[in-house]
Amino acid sequence: MKVLMFGWEFPPKIYGGLAVATYGIIKGLSVQGDVETTLCMPKPCGDEEKFLNIIGMNQVPVVWRDADYDYVKSHIGPGMTPELYYDLRNHIYADFSYMHVNDLGCMEFAGGYPSNLNDEINNFSIIAGVVARQQQFDIIHAHDWLTYPAGVHAKMVSGKPLCIHVHATDFDRSRGKVNPTVYGIEKNGMDYADCIMCVSELTRRTVINEYHQDPRKVFAVHNAVYPLSQEYQDIPRPVHDKEKVVTFLGRITMQKGPEYFVEAAAMVLRRTRNIRFVMAGSGDMMNAMINLAAERGIADRFHFPGFMKGRQVYEVYKNSDVFVMPSVSEPFGIAPLEAMQCGTPSIISKQSGCGEILTNVIKTDYWDIHAMADYIHAICTQPALFNYLQEEGKKEVDGITWEKVALKVRGLYENALKNYNR
């Protein structure tokens, strides 16, 4: 089976959970032996792993340029060969000379989430038309709203079935203040999709109820984690006899509920001053959270180390006695699983999709700062509770693998192909 996949992020360039999930699914599919995935992404860095085919959309020509072989070879960038470039050039389907392109007829991408994101999403979908005409594939898989237009275009060009993956909706990102442009892109992708994969039952219900989709084509496919590498396993776990450490790690945005973490911290610190709180990450609410911590008189117990990546993330997990994810609306949430892998007990909001598959975690409503504070204090002061959550949580998460997720994805591919060809 050949899969043409559209994604916006992929390791080692990680902006959030989307990169991790995309990697996990493709890696899980690859071990099945008979699934070949071609991932189209805006701007590869060249350091991606080689177990899949990658097409950089910034390397696909949409305007004919008479470039010789040696020039293409020296200027096209990582991963793309001159032969593939010329074959793609032969599949340009319209006059895009009015677009801003480079000397190879390719559009540039900033990578990540630039201020002109809507333009880049549109350009990505234009280029998808060239790729879909040139590539041979059985099914299309588009990750998140950024790539839905590309997936729809590829379906219209190829006549192949489209699966879309809903990692989050704008209802999650905006606390209900939905951006009509984003909603329109999401709904159009869902309307055209033959199969909609949602990262939780929580997200599945949102897709059915808010986007008016047929429940028969909407499925919950929960995320997973990969086993810790030896490098991360070897990171030491310090023993905090005198002071415990409680951590929030993620985007500091309204979706993640950072203010509830600060308020719960203030309540805990009224009982004891022997706990330090860490809010790791970055986002548009960071300054507001720094000010809130100061207003609550806990700035001396609160730390803001900034954005973490790679090994830093796991060092933070291992240095924590409690991990807290108080998200207001979390479609899934991989972070608690990663923390539990590291032996860190976790508290999550009941509004988090990962709670559907996790038993050995503490669950509270995101707004219930009293309960959150009680549980933080209990885990920090009761060794028996800490040890139970540490041991049972790690055991539970070790059984949640991307290989199992990929088997379910494979089954949904086969079901979509069967129904599409009737």
Can you walk me through this structure?
The chain has helices spanning 17-30, 69-75, 82-89, 117-134, 144-158, 170-173, 180-192, 201-210, 230-233, 258-271, 286-295, 311-318, 335-341, 369-381, 383-397, 402-420, and strands at residues 2-6, 36-41, 53-56, 139-143, 162-166, 195-198, 218-220, 244-249, 275-280, 302-306, 322-325, 346-349, 362-364. With 422 residues, the protein is an alpha/beta fold. The protein has 2 domains: 2-224 and 402-420, Glycogen Phosphorylase B (Rossmann fold, 3-Layer(aba) Sandwich); 230-397, Glycogen Phosphorylase B (Rossmann fold, 3-Layer(aba) Sandwich), CATH 3.40.50. The strands form 2 sheets. Strands 3-2-1-4-5-6-7 form a 7-stranded parallel beta sheet, with helices on both faces. Strands 10-9-8-11-12-13 form a 6-stranded parallel beta sheet, sandwiched between helices. α1 (17-30) links the parallel β1 and β2 (36-41). The longest helix has 19 residues, at 402-420. It is elongated. The model has no long low-confidence stretch (mean pLDDT 95).
Q: What characteristics describe this protein?
A:
single chain; 422 residues; alpha/beta; Rossmann fold; 7-stranded parallel sheet; 6-stranded parallel sheet; 16 helices; elongated
Q: What is the strand tally?
A: 13
In helices, the fraction of residues equals: 40-55%
* Total of domains: 2
Question: What is the H/E order?
Answer: EHEEHHHEHEHHEHEHEHEHEHEHEEHHH
Mean pLDDT: 95
Looking at the overall shape, the CATH architecture of the largest domain is 3-Layer(aba) Sandwich
CATH homologous superfamily title of the largest domain: Glycogen Phosphorylase B
Q: What general form does the structure show?
A: elongated
Instruction: Give the end-to-end Cα distance, rounded to a whole number of Å.
Output: 18 Å
CATH topological fold name of the largest domain:
Rossmann fold
Low-confidence stretches: none
Indicate the proportion of strand residues.
Answer: 5-15%
The major pleated sheet works out as:
7 strands, parallel
What Rg is obtained from the alpha carbons, in whole angstroms? Answer: 23 Å
